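Task card 7
Instruction: Convert sequence to structure tokens.
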Amino acid sequence: MTFVIFVAGLLEYNSGKTTIAKEMINFFEKDLSFKTTPFKPLSGNNLFYNYEKIKEYVDKYNQFISLDIVDLLACSSSKISPTVANPVHRLNTQALSYEFIKEGSIKTFYNRYLSSVTLFQRFSTCDSSSDCDSIFIVNEPIYGNQKFWNDISLTDTIIKQGKDVRTYKNEQEYFSLNSQFYADATESAFKQIKEESQTIVIESFNNSAHPAWCIRESNAVIIVGPGSVYMYEPETYFRAIDNFRSINRNKPTTTDDILNFITPTKAYSLSIDEEKGKEEIDQICKEIYETYK
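Output:
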């Protein structure tokens, strides 16, 4: 049986999920000699802030892959393709305030574009030999718009890797396309990873409480915040999500939506000292495995 751990974030950004997930992979690989594979169903990187690294990885791997999944796979003995370990990946960018000021629409910038915006998203399905086909959905109003930072030569190169490219003009069209491709990409990737792994560490996206249906196979649920780790009983956690969704049908479920309704089985405070923090995470991993194996 494959042992599955789901790691979600208490905050939208900088919860520490990847740090915890990496240490968990190290523990199960080195201390228990389990073949452990990371899985990140959905991820996203920002072209404006991570341009050099994204360009480096496109050149190195000839794929559009998550920066986080490269770090996670570096801790693992798994030879799984990064595209399998991260089947859905989004590229965001930033609006350029200068362009909005120049055309006299700075209010639009403040009202709509302070946060990042999506350029495109990749969905990949892979066979047992890790040969992958990718579909890209492109945000048409943003992609070629000079008010949003983009290196067209790089992003065109990425998109041309896909077997199909679709465009969308608004949120409704995005959700329609996402619903066509997301489940198949994430579930087929998880099935392949499960066949090749003794342990899977699933890392969520931002503070999403339920990034893919496959997390329902988790033996342990961990929520991570700055300097803290919380353990939840999986059945209780997923029941809370189902109850929330029965009332809020069209709202994405985040961890802050449901944690008011459930109590962790255990809570841990982590040291700010890096080495001591790693030892504490190893101890948490031992407790997780002994509790849920």
